[in-house]
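pinning this so it doesn't scroll away 📌
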Amino acid sequence: MTYILYAVLFGVVQGLTEFLPISSTGHLILLEKFFKLPPETFGLSFDIALHIGTLLALLIYFRKDVIAIIYNMVSRKDNLGIKLLIATIPAIFAGLVFEKLIRADFRSPILMAVNLFIFSFVFLIAEKLDKNNNKVDNISFKQSFVIGIYQAIALLPGVSRSGITISGGLFSGLTKEDAGRFAFLLSIPIIALASIADLPHLISGEFNSQTLGVFTVGMLSAFVTGYFCIKYFLIYLKKHGFVPFVVYRIILAVLILLYFK
């Protein structure tokens, strides 16, 4: 398989797993270890490019929401933007404090398998408690902060940012649809900040025609896949739950433990 095809594969996986409750970081770690690709091409810089692709998917899909949030914050007409900022604080704090662990020790396949298994049951519990019909506008700043704590937990590989943040929304009384919308909007600032923080690493990398092509293809693949994943997963959440994803996570956890034992 050529590097371009690998880039397409990684981009598709990133676009799907960033928004489905199955852990994007975990899947990228597995792909890197399984294919044993050169780190100078498929290392941290490539991961940054993939995340920029999914960030663009979020910004394009939620463009009206983002514009409205910015306008209302400036006009002081709404507090959704403030709630999102408050909910972003825990992940920023955790990222700064545990940065070295996240980049090194937290990338263990065994740890990822354990998290895939354990947090699957957290998702199921959250879904069982989905009896409320609360809307985002009705949650408090305190509830927003608590949902942000759930997002911070997703720094562990195998957890899934979308899955744990949606669960946090459900625990706070949001409907599945609103929990999904809030979780995706909340992922915009944290992915943007993470991309900005890693931008010097991306810029300092040695680029040639091959790496530039791989990065561009990976980013576009993640963008297109991510955009449609957001669209159809939000539709899915209106009538369905986490069970199929939980089954997938548990099977994947078992396979990882068997492969890396």
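📌 and the second one:
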Amino acid sequence: MADDLKRNIIGRGRLIWQGWGMTAPAADIAFLLGAIALVALGATPLSILIGFIIYLAILNTSYRFSQKYISAGSDFTYVGKGLGGFMATFEGWNLFFGTMFAYAGFGMLGLAAFFDIFDSQIVTDYLWIPIVLLLNVITFFILYRGIRFSTSYQAITGVAELLILIVGGIGLVILAGKGNTLEVFNPVIAKGGIYGFIHSLTLSVVTFIGLSIALTSISEETKIPRENVPRSLLISSLIIGGTIIFLTYAMTVSWGYTHMISFGNSLDNGLILFNKLSPVMFILLFIFTVNSFMGNNISMGTSMTRIFYAFSRDGVIFPQSFSKVDGNGTPVNTLFFILAISIFLCLSFGLYFGPVTGGYVLLFADAFFSFLIRSISSASLIVGTFRKGKINLKSLAGYIIIPLISIAALLYVLISDIIPLPSYPYNFAAIIGIIIISAAFIVTFYTWIRDPERIGNAGSTSIEEILDYDVSS
């Protein structure tokens, strides 16, 4: 039998900053923004803005489900409720690979690569390896201490990071002077025009996409979850979206929107710009960028321990031992497993591609899993709504139209990353994503043939759920 997670220990404030930690705005600006700029060029602010709008459509699904179901399984459970155990199991496999790739690629390899701005020997002399190992171990012990300890850390450092970024952004806009322009919202200036701009949306959406999992996966440990989780999703999203969009604009016009190739090729673009404001701002941005990467590790690690716990509790993907919870309220066996897989991925991709490119490859591959996960979840919301048969004009937008828009947007961006295949090494990432997703479906189907009852149970467990909900409410 599964152990229970601790109840009623997380309030709305901790949820909001847990979402901030997952999105990691300062780290996004240091790591992802450069990769987006290499394709979007001067239209990088527009790419981030459109990526955020697409994300809000995606968020609608988690918002609606979180009002009805309380489960550590997050999208795994949501799919089980709407589409059944087979699709929940398939969703679970995609969640496993997607979260692990993002965890290793961004928070671990991304931070190790960030240190390279001070000394190139960190990469050339393989000094990034002990850094990655240390990051994994530090994150492990923070998560081991329990969710109240980790969310306290997120709240304190998150507020400080927000203040630094806003003050710095205002300074950069002032510094840009006549360089402030609306031309950065013109998609045709992207590399390759409109098509290149669409391609840039892959990482722009990934910038925001993990936030919903960060909050919904800890719903069982939240006070008044059906009220606090959905409200925190909206509040956290607006704070994060506004901050990243503003900072992206400020950095683009301050750097010069016609010179974004050099911005994308510079690992320390944010530090260069903040140093123009003040050496103090330079130091503060460095400190909080490092902390931002760690915040992502903590939020992502917390989510993975809970989601994998839910897999085990429902008897799919992982063994029953993964649902063991220790005195701190931590699914401890899942935590050891995550540590081992993360180190394996970091070393494998880091040694083959180098830590910078290896991190980007993992994140690009993660986009395939993440987009598919959200598409399936949105489909589950639509199907579940029709199965309840309680549709009216008031509920039509939130339960049918917006989920359809999010599916269409996600699949369109996803297909644009396959046809034609991008250049090396991102073609490698695309192939990895396609192969693993195909293998996950085959494994799910094989397991369903052998043990349909076990597969049928996947995604079935939620706490204090509303069994007969009305979508018009």
